[in-house]
User: What shape does this take?
Amino acid sequence: MDRSRSVRARPELFESREPVARTKVPGVDGPERLLELQRSAGNAAVSGLIARQRARTEERSMTLADFSQGVRRFGVTSVKTGTLEEQTQLLNTQFGAEDRLGDVLQNDIRAHNSPERRGGPGTHRPYASILAGFEDFERGMGGVPPVSEIWFFEFGFLPLTIQGQLRVRRGTMAAEFGGGKLALYKAAEAEATQKVIPVRRDRDRRPSRAERVTRDIGMRRIVSHELGHGMQELAYQRASEAADSRPELMARYRAQVGWVQRGARERLYDIRAPGVEEALAAGTEPDARFEITKENWDQGFREQPISKYSVTESFEDFGEAVMAYVQRPAVLQSRSPRRFAFVRELGALQPGDRGDRGGGGRRTGVRRGMTGGRHRLPASSLPGRSRASPRT
Ligand SMILES: [Zn+2]
Assistant: This one.
């Protein structure tokens, strides 16, 4: 892929709500739940619960060879545990190209000789869960955007300016996507179980309960989110290849769910609250009570973000919406009908889908560039975009 066209997805610094059950007993919900069950249903129910939950949390093991073979179907030709030199190269070309972050890293190492900044091979390899994330995405979206390489590194790096000088620091991100390359860091393991989303709509200004997340499910969510960025990248690439007069992907998304640029930052409003859509369309300021922030995102708005992380910026909101569409469609539909509709428009024709569930004539369009999946995506999902980087 032409480097100038690549985007750098925002490094994933997932924020999430605390899981509801705080007492950690492997595979079960915690002692209180057990006691409650014992009281109400007896020991048979308890054993059943434990067995079910053990099965759910057990991770399948998979060899590197099987993993590499498995992702090959999605166009991934290289799976590697990266060296520091390879990470330097990637930082210079994909994950920080605008700053030549790889050179900054090498300068830092030479000047400060700080071993903790050296990165190095990644040790985490939940191969089965990562492959499952690709399969989930294919099932949900009808195909997978271009991913040519998967890299494992110990940790990622972020730019940092100290006294006017550009340096790097270790990031706590779980993953990054850029230029068709997916990087997974060791932090993904820990972050996976924090990738918690509500189980339903928030009501009466009270947050919905959130479910516990196994590492397997969490990794699949992380992969789905990153592949959502892959769809953004594909859209930008399409737009730069052909003069495309359709409104670009993220402009349409922002308008659909209530994002608006205000100075250097984006604000999110509850698009389904009275007068908001009209105000945004007219370029005027909606009622401030309907602004959604990280502090109030789960307080029962009409159109409800899927996670606190969604409220970071529209770019991440999109990744989270695609993730939820793939992993928890019913939850997304109930919380965020607008987001659900938007992603469904981009997404798959379900197997056996012959009818006219939206799309109409556009269905004959071919979504070039998606691999896997027997079903094609509507051409309407190929928006225009020419800006090289979505970062602000
Ligand atoms: Zn992201």
User: Anything to note?
Assistant: DSSP finds 13 helices and nine strands in the chain.
